[in-house]
Amino acid sequence: MLCENCKKREGIPNVYILNGVTKVRYLCSECNSQIIKQKMGTGLGSGFLDDFGDIFNDLSDVFDQLFGVERNAPSIPSLRCSRCGTTSNEFLNSAFVGCAQCYKAFEPIMESVIKKCQKDNIHTGKGPNGIAKTYISLQRLNAELKKAVQDERYEDAALIKKQIEQLKGTQK
Amino acid sequence: MIKSDISNYVISSRIRLARNLAKYPFPNKMGFEDGLRVIKEVSEPLEKYVDGKLIMLKDLEPIEIKAFTEKHLISNALAENIKTGGVVINKDSTLSVMINEEDHVRIQVIKRSLDLESAYELADKVDDLISENSEVAFDIHLGYLTGCPTNLGTAMRASVMMFLPALTINRTINNVIFSSSKDALALRGVFGEGTQAEGYMYQLSNQYSLGLSEKEIINSVKNQIYKVAEAEEIARDTLLNKNRVELTDMIMRAWGILINAYKIDTAEFMQNISLIKLGAALGILKIKNSALDEIIIACRPANLALRSGKKLDAIERDIYRAEFLKDVLPKMA
Ligand SMILES: [Zn+2]
Ligand SMILES: [Zn+2]
């Protein structure tokens, strides 16, 4: 198969994972190395974190990249968790909070931290003992509704609205 | 769509759930006494449920701890917590529940081949058991609260270990490693540094744990796995068509080294066993790849030392590794 880019040389399958999507493209090695160079200029240049435990334990590196901006900005409020004593500075340096309450204590900075390392700031998965199940389902549907309206998928939106009404009905 | 079975490309699937008990500070801010309380509270109901005994790290020799990490039964972070770290492992070693790791509890299930669903099913049951017995730190918006915000939400990591020799040899896998921080998935070499994945093994896992449901995470990882497997399949076909003679020769020579060497170090072993795995995957050798994966773990330094039953220096270990291979490999072919 010919290279998809230059259409001159022979191409081989190249795998790219970008924005969560895997793409396989047939490229020759010349065109391929050019693309890598471009990617290197914009991306982080190395993979993100994983925690299989063997080799990717340097979370601090990742957090340097994630939090670097915040940490150096002069406007960071200095916060302290009244329960475990962890300070916001400590948190930004180590990437670890000290207890469950820290999330409340560091609320003013938490949002931007989460925005940087997570897909969204609303949990839509499982909850303990099923207690929160209805609530979580509602949150999930509301998030879906918002997205459907944004994408102008109005038929879907109507359907989701119906589901929300049903769920609210079972709650009473 | 791939033509052959997915197990030709996937070694194992892993689900990891992180949980913390609401009433204690997280492990990095927790005192010794609280650490022991967490151990007791988590392990007691668990031991009954999984029919496995709690193992405290302080009761293990350093080499035993190392051997557990080589088998992926405990993480490096747990291995560092000698004082209050503990683990409960089930009979067939598919489940390990680490206590006082970065979070109070890390539930880990590893299954052969591509099987994230059944791995999650077991992890989910263990999670239910834990939250029946203890109040788990949970927030309605942020989900499960974890030591590090990168694990919030589902606090789940779904990882798949892939075997990608042809993409590695083609040098087209290098690209995958350049993923930016906004990517939803990460693919990294399992052994070795940076882009040069030793053993042609890569780990693909979800980046985000908050904002997606468990099912969505599993499905997205699975989708990507099939795409990468497809690329690997095409690359293997091309490789075989173009270089069958050279490839077969390389693989047979690797076999020769592994069963004839008097001593062999980890790097040389990995290089050659990877070729054997490639030979098995391409059908050049009639060997089961899963059996080779077990040999790879058995040949890692700590597991080898444990098997020998004595203290070995580096040279002795390399000699012992060669002896071991001479014994097990011919039986497989
Ligand atoms: Zn080209
Ligand atoms: Zn705190």
Structure description:
- The complex is a heterodimer of chains A (172) and B (333).
- With 172 residues, chain A is mainly alpha-helical.
- Chain A has helices spanning 29-42, 59-72, 88-94, 102-105, 107-117, 133-150, 154-171; strands at 12-18, 21-27.
- A two-stranded antiparallel ribbon of chain A has the order 1-2.
- In chain A, helix 6 runs antiparallel to helix 7.
- Chain B has 333 residues and is an alpha+beta fold.
- Chain B has a domain at 232-332.
- Chain B has eleven helices and ten strands.
- Chain B has helices spanning 32-50, 62-70, 76-79, 116-133, 165-169, 174-177, 214-260, 266-282, 289-298, 301-308, 314-332; strands at residues 10-19, 54-56, 86-89, 95-99, 105-112, 138-139, 143-144, 156-163, 185-191, 198-206.
- In chain B, the strands form two sheets. An eight-stranded antiparallel β-sheet of chain B has the order 2-3-4-5-1-8-10-9.
- In chain B, helix 1 (32-50) crosses helix 4, helix 2 crosses helix 10 and helix 7 (214-260) packs across helix 8 (266-282).
- The longest helix of chain B has 47 residues, at 214-260.
- Classes of the chains: A mainly alpha (172), B alpha+beta (333).
Mean of pLDDT of chain A: 72
Number of strands of chain A: 2
- Structural class of the secondary elements of chain A? mainly alpha
Helical fraction of chain B: 40-55%
Report the sheet with the most strands of chain A, covering strand number, pairing sense and barrel closure: 2 strands, antiparallel
Number of helices of chain B: 11
User: Beta-strand percentage of chain B?
Assistant: 15-25%
Question: SS-based structural class of chain B?
Answer: alpha+beta
Most strands sheet of chain B: 8 strands, antiparallel
Tally of DSSP β-strands of chain B: 10
